[in-house]
Here is the input.
Amino acid sequence: MFEFILTNPFLAAVLALLALGLVFGAVLGFGAITFKVEGDPIVDQINAILPQTQCGQCGYPGCKPYAEAIANGDLINKCPPGGEAGIHALADLLDVEVIALDDEHGMEDSRKIAYIREDECIGCTKCIQACPVDAILGAAKLMHTVIVSECTGCDLCVEPCPVDCIDMLPVVTGKNAWSWDLPNPTINAGPIIASDRELGRKDAAA
Amino acid sequence: MRKVWDIHGGIHPPENKTQSLEHAIEFAGIPAQLILPVSQHIGAAASPVVQVGDTVLKGQCIAEAVGAVSVPIHAPSSGTVTAIEDRPIAHPSGLDDLCIVIDTDGKDIWHQPPSTRDFTQLDKATLVELIRNHGIAGMGGAGFPTSIKLNMREPSNIKTLILNGTECEPYITSDHVLMREQSRKLAQGIAILAKLVQPEEILLGVEDNKIDVVAGLQDALKQHDFSALTGKPTSAEVITFPTKYPSGGEKQLIEILTGKQVPTGSLPASLGIACQNLGTAVAISDAVINDRPLISRITTVTGQAVAQPRNFEVLLGTPVEYLLARSGYNASSSNRLVMGGPMMGFTLLDITMPVVKTTNCILAPTEAELPSPPPAQACIRCGLCAEACPASLLPQQLFWFAQGKELEKLEQHNIADCIECGACSYVCPSNIPLVQYYRASKAEIRQRDADMQQAEHAKVRFDARQERLDRLEAEKIAARQARQAKAAANKAAQAGQDPKAAAVAAALARVGAKKSALEAAQNASAPEQIPAATLATDIDDPVQRALAKRAKQEQAGAANPAAVLQRAVESAEARLEKARLKLTNAETVQDSNVDAFKLAVDKCQSKLNQARAALDAHDAT
Here is the structure.
């Protein structure tokens, strides 16, 4: 062995490298099969950030397709329900620049819920077919209604309604949904120095 | 002397408690109108069981509990329900909520005679039920339904029962006067709690600025044999410790009295400790022993803008306005009204708001006494807030993260453990409203979690729908392919000469024969020529038979319209005859439906006339 290396140093080096290559190739090949990841993990991460409204305002038929499109290089500013916060989260995840929401796809709005004016409903089932999350209950020629807890506010049921009996109403916020706002430092900002403040008050009084 | 521990941080703001302590508790009286929000506790709002216009008596249930985490509400005085509508409620938001409004009649009539009960004879389930049915919710701050806190599994794992007599917040003295004047009732309430919880020790924690009540409390506690109530050796003692804000926080008090810290995200019960408010204990005593629901509480009205600061026994639902008028409130000198104390209370936006189960203080300070917050300046990183924080948090870090809306960082820095005591804001030399940042951030974290849960739910539903649509589409395609395959097979069978194909051909021939027979019959002009057997007996389905019969008649009718019309006249005559018979029968027995029968006869007559007219018209043509 040692003699062979001494007599054929070039051949020995080639063989050694070849052997190393075979071993590592086998390890990598084995690893690629055993530890194969199902699906595209980045798509799932993007999909987790998207609001799952399934509204299609981005131009794709749902949040998952848009997530796939983003993973393939589409812009991150096409999701109005996700809004600015969503764009920031996506930018963080993908390490790209934060860009403003594209107005073409809609404006960021408060969360809304579809309500069917039930006495006007003719029972055509068109909205039921349009709803991406099966949140509308009803049958042909029977009144339909929206399951409020399931509605994502995607707006897709409004368009197909032949009698225009669906309203998108803001979510009712009661006492339990109320919360404190972050303080706005500019609201209370008077003169900072105490003696100035006294002066300001006298001026205001005068 | 029992060892007490110290908590981290804390502050010593001016106490300002003596003003309201000079007088004994005074009954505030019955205001002309009582406004009772249906949601005075944490959990589901109670549901009104009275109508507008109903007369209610004192102590009558006017709204019942909905679900497990809820308590009923009772009428604090007798009167008439004049409205059930949205009114401003005692809440920092200043929002309206559903309230039951009672116009009192001043007679204050109880809906049941006074009675007393021996609680030692009652079992646990009955006691818990009594506490729930009498509308008792924690009267310290949050208003958590007491029955849920006490309804624990058997055997109870609670070793220490703590009564919170700390009342660490400046100005408030409602618990102080309660300990001073109602110690007997308080001890009874503690005895009932002891029977329910079965602790090994009962600790009544009192700050040393209320040292005057200790002797009275000890005497009152001696009246009860707690070991007999719990069935094991149980000690009960009053423990005093140095005054410091906020030692009255539940977790803080537990640390002071036992040296144990409640872990993040868990309840005191996990350490075998239960904490109760003093007002709640007194309310439990009233409910169990005197059968008196929670309809009043002790509320401090104080501050320099009121002439006579004192403690009132207030009926729940009394408007703040009324209480202020009773204590000589000077609106011009007051800069704002606070419900609760100066540290954790909230500004009242409307003085018609009612006193509720958790209202311990109404504070009416002057501008000099409690100045409006000066403008906030930049954080100078002095670290005073971290020294003052009783929960050992890092308030300035939390402040940075709150400004940047870095919710994950906030969670990592345990913002959930912030008790919103306001000690950090109090010591901040830059006057930064730190607690407001934390409150907003906590709400944002809650909102984000709720949104994420909703998004996850929507995703699952979207995927399920997509899967269903795909499956239906696949089924449709499969069905179409199956049909095509079948058609192809049939064709092949016809082309080839296998026994199956012969059978099919024979069947086809039979069908063809029947069809031609039918056609022949239809072509025949006279109806009696139709081979009735083909139509009436060969078809088993009654619907098919009826259809066939109808078709036969139509065929016949087309061939001979006069016969059809003749038959119509005959059947109408028969019907008219039947209707007349029924009418005469009805008239003889004086049936109440005579009119209906008459109508039927008239209708039959008109139908007969029509049929005859049609026949005549046909004959004429």
